UniProtKB/TrEMBL annotation:
Full protein name: 4-deoxy-L-threo-5-hexosulose-uronate ketol-isomerase
Family: Belongs to the KduI family.
Cofactor(s) needed by this chain: Zn(2+)
Catalytic activity: 5-dehydro-4-deoxy-D-glucuronate = 3-deoxy-D-glycero-2,5-hexodiulosonate
Pfam family, one: KduI
Domain of life: Bacteria
Protein EC: 5.3.1.17
Gene3D superfamilies named among the record's database cross-references: Jelly Rolls, pectin degrading enzyme 5-keto 4- deoxyuronate isomerase, domain 1
Gene responsible for this protein: kduI
Length: 278
């Protein structure tokens, strides 16, 4: 298991960053490696996120001394969405199947979480996001088949999309983690546009289901001083609370968003007028 630590940066700090400096600070280029657990710890609200890709052996996230606890979820909650082949998740000895697009909320003080793939040649790819928690909430399996998506955007502005809220008050309780899956309509290419910030929460984006030649231009930074990252399939980015987060792709793509912070109100956004973007 590997975990990289990223420290928080202010907007003033990144003002003169080169492209490589910006990528080193905010982009995670590799999350899913067969047989490995790859995690990133961002000091933005102390979120841990990354990929678990089991093949022939069961994998487990083992973090104790790194977090000053006896076991990983002693003081944390965890969200999981499978974006790969069929597999299963084993929670305190109980195994549950996890096909692609199945999710799970796993609450504080869950002592053992293990991950398996049904077929090593087509492994499950478990995207995992964990944040600090103060209360125990029940573990809940979440299937995209049981979620009524929120439809937003317009074809005329190339941002028509369906938002599937997995870990959200409409679906299950959590301390501060929110997590969901957004699928763009055919012919649409913009996500989260018009863009916004939310000073009370940070966010991560995982882009996936992309062809090798497809790229997403992910825009970030202060509204009046924007920057961008060019991202490929199964790459993720850290979005601090002070930053906008929006993107446009050269072809079809899907993304998972995950948020944590001061509150759990999905609509807590500070919208940015088009004329204010620079």
């Amino acid at each position: 298991m590997k975990m990289e630590t990223r420290y928080g940066s202010s907007p003033e700090m990144i003002r003169h960053f080169s492209t490589e400096q910006l990528r080193d600070e905010f982009l995670v280029e590799k999350l899913f490696v067969p047989g490995e657990v790859l995690l990133t710890y961002t000091h933005n609200d102390r979120m841990i996120f990354g990929g678990v890709t089991p093949t022939n052996e069961t994998l487990e996230i083992r973090l104790s001394t790194e977090l000053g606890v006896d076991y990983f979820l002693e003081r944390r909650e965890l969200g999981v969405i499978n974006i790969g082949g069929p597999g299963s998740i084993i929670i305190n000895g109980t195994e549950e199947p996890m096909k692609k697009q199945d999710g799970y909320y796993i609450g504080k003080e869950t002592k053992q979480v293990q991950f398996k793939s049904d077929d090593a040649s087509n492994p499950a790819k478990f995207y995992c996001v964990s944040v600090p928690a103060h209360k125990i909430y029940p573990n809940v399996k979440i299937s995209i088949d049981n979620i009524t998506p929120m439809e937003t955007g317009e074809s005329t502005t190339l941002n028509k999309r369906k938002i599937y809220q997995y870990i959200h008050p409409n679906v299950c309780e959590s301390c501060q983690l929110q997590m969901g899956y957004t699928i763009l309509a055919e012919g649409s290419s913009w996500n989260t546009m018009p863009c916004h910030t939310h000073e009370r929460r940070m966010e991560t984006y995982l882009y996936f289901d992309m062809d090798p030649d497809t790229k997403v231009f992910h825009f970030m930074g202060k509204p009046d001083e924007t920057k961008h990252l060019v991202m490929g399939n199964e790459q993720a980015t850290i979005s601090p609370s002070w930053s906008i987060h929006t993107g446009v792709g050269t072809a079809d793509y899907t993304f998972i968003w995950a948020m944590c912070g001061e509150n759990i109100t999905y609509g807590d956004m500070d919208m940015v007028a088009m004329d204010d973007l620079k």
